[in-house]
Specification:
This protein is an alpha+beta fold and 185 residues long. The protein has 2 domains: 10-24 and 90-180, PH-domain like; 29-85. The protein contains 3 helices and 10 strands; from the N terminus they run ββααββββββββα. It has helices at residues 28-54, 62-87, 168-180, and strands at 10-14, 17-23, 89-95, 98-104, 112-115, 119-124, 131-132, 135-136, 151-155, 158-162. β1 (10-14) and β2 form a beta hairpin. The two termini are 37 Å apart. The relative contact order is 0.17.
């Protein structure tokens, strides 16, 4: 007999609210691929920088400078995705009239707080995007850390998403718990 899935999120009830911790979805292929790719990237980056600094190559043309900037940016994006996949977790705090989303392990991400009186239409909606070796190829992947989530709500004229990678059933469970505690309607 198949054992029921217990979920990924941890729910901690405090005297002043609820804290929901959702670890980043681990993708073994992403971890292996980016680890190897970043090793190669580092060697190439320092080799190219060494060439520019020492000046062994007099071809400091615009293409080489643009290529180096693009290569550097690509490496930083890959490092951010790898770091999130290995160490990332969303910490959602609901209580005292606010919902705060903090993505620990997401480099260059600032925690955001929302007034629960202005938050409307809480719902669970799982994106079904084509899967590839790097995870979902839609908006729900390791490269788009800031705008992912199975749980959504309307905040003014914007849709806010959080709790990335949860199954819809687990997201509905969390929403029901928040409704039962009268944090959301």
């Amino acid at each position: 007999m198949e054992t029921p899935y217990g979920g990924r999120a941890s729910i901690i009830e405090n005297f002043d609210g609820i804290e929901i911790i959702v670890p980043a979805k681990r993708n073994t292929f992403v971890i292996i691929f980016f680890s190897i790719w970043l090793c190669i990237w580092t060697v190439s980056e320092f080799s190219t920088l060494n060439t520019f600094i020492i000046g062994r190559n007099s071809s400091r043309d615009i293409f080489s400078i643009v290529w180096l900037c693009g290569w550097t940016l690509g490496g930083l994006i890959a490092f951010r995705a790898l770091f999130w996949t290995i160490t990332g977790k969303e910490i959602i705090k609901v209580g005292q009239g606010a919902l705060t989303i903090n993505k620990r392990g997401a480099l260059l991400y600032k925690a955001k707080s929302y007034d629960l009186r202005e938050a409307k239409n809480f719902r669970a909606w799982q994106e079904y995007a084509p899967r590839g070796p790097f995870g979902n190829t839609g908006s729900n992947n390791a490269f788009n850390i800031a705008n992912n989530g199975t749980i959504r709500f309307d905040y003014g004229m914007q849709t806010i998403k959080f709790a990335d990678g949860l199954d819809e059933a687990e997201a509905n469970f969390i929403l029901q718990k928040l409704r039962d505690k009268k944090y959301i309607s």
